[in-house]
Structures are given as C-alpha cells and as structure tokens.
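Dig into what follows:
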Amino acid sequence: MKATRFRSHFSGLSRQVMFWFLLISLLPLCVVSWVSHMQTRELIYESVAEHLLDVSIVETSAIKNKIEHILLDLAMESERVSNSVLLQALMKAHERSGQSAAEFVRSYPWVGIVEERASDLRIFMNAYDYYDVLLIDRSGNILLNLTDENDLGQNLFQGTMGESGFAKAARRSLESGRIVFSDLEHYAPSNGLLAGFFMAPLLDDQGEKIGLIALQLSSQQIRAIVGENIQFGDTGRRYLIGADQTLRTPGALGDDYPILKKAVKTRNVEKWVAEHITMTSAAHLSQGSLAHGEFSTDEQRHDADEEEAIIYTGPHGKSV
C-alpha cells in the first residue's frame, strides 16, 4: 500500500518536474526564435530596400539620359541659323500678306517658303522619331508644323489652346529665354493623344527672341521616358507621378487611376511633395524665379538627396 502511494507521488512529481524543465527550456528557445525572426525580417527588409534603391537609381539614370538627348537635339536645332531664317521668312511673308495666320498657312507664299527651307527640319524629325516640329512667332502664331494638324495657323495664346500646358510652357520659355518642358497632356490637335513639348527660343542676328521652336514627343519617346505598366513580381509596381500628384505612367495602377486624372494620395507621395515640390516652389518664389519645368543647357543638375524606403499604405489601400 505504501509502495503504491510512493510510486503515485513520485510519478506526479516527475510530471511536474518534466513540465517545468520543458517550460524553462522552451522559453529561451522562443526568445531565440523571436530574435532570429526579427533579424531575418530586418535582413529581408534591408535587402528589398537596397534592391529598390538600385532599381530607382538605374531607372532615374535612364530617364535622365533620354531627356538629355532630347535637350541636346533641341539645343542644336534652336542654334541652327537655318531654322531662325525659316521662321523670319515666314513672319515677314505673313506680315506682307495682311492675312490672318490661319489664312496665311494655306497660301502659295507659305507653301513656297516651306518647300524651299523646311526639308532639313523634316529630315531631323524623321531621323530622331519626333511626332512633330513646330515654329511659333513671338505673338503665339503657329506658322509651321510638319504634320499638318489643325494647330497650324492657330494662335497658341488665344482661345482654348491658351489654357494648354503647351501654351503655358511657351510663355515661360519666351519670358525666360530658356528651354522648357510642357509636361504631359492630352493634346486636342493631335486627336487627344498624350503629348509633351520641349521648346526653346529662336534668336535673330542681333540676339533678339523672334519666337520658339518646339519638339512634340512621339508616343514611343513618351513610353521610353515614363514607362508602361512595369511590374516586379506579382504585386510590385513602378510608376511616375507629376507635381500635381496624378499619374504619368499609363495603366500602371489599373483603371482606378487613369493617367493625368486622379491624384495618387499616399504617405510617400505627400512626403515627396512636401520635400521636393512645396519647398522648391517656395525657393523659386523667394528668388523671383519661375524656373519650374525649365532647363539650362549650360548647367548640370545633381540631386544629392538621400531617400529612404518606407512601408506605407499604397494607392489601393494595401500595405506596400
């Protein structure tokens, strides 16, 4: 009887001791596992962040290179004497005709000047895959395009065209004497196609501004700059937004975010706007400058800002 009680007591004690030994041994195991999990998670986060940084550097460099090639093309054409001579010939013939710009561009004198002097511009446009090349006088009259679209003969600063991004950029270029980019827009004379214009002043022999030369980007050039619906794996997305926070990369965020229509409201975008748009605009205003969207061919821009990858709620409400 006593032996039975002893064995029963010993057996219960053994179970309790075994339980506490297991508990004590599991506790450091759990701590080690938790620490290992956190370290692994941090390593994965750092690896992904480093990968994103590398991708952004490569993508940014590619975009800058493409834009620099366009700026070089435009700088060369704006300095070409033959283009200034062509615009001056059109302006003088227009003035002598006494006609409106819309009437003049359908006249025999206009046709004669263009056939005689515009062949080099046409060769340039086709060789470098631009959608169109336009010459505009000081008053905003479009006296030449090479596509014969219905903006030919219109005044860029009047009517509905006066509110276009193209017109606003043209005014800035004439005022500042610098190369200006219009940003992207759906351009009505091109049947609403997505368009972007780089433009620069043309000068006469005395160095006076006589008008502008504008390069309209082709759809291929726009896609090369802003990209398309580029994905990384099943969920990763790469897209560009503008200062107005709307999308510049077609289709990148699906039908919920049509290009140039709906602002992308995320913590990351708001952070970027506060640091790069609001502060930059304030700096330009304090200097009495309207340099946003303007380029100088004799200066190199370097962005020394160091950016940080963060986890935030994406455009579709998911953590990214």
Residues 283-292, 297-304 have pLDDT under 50 and may be disordered.
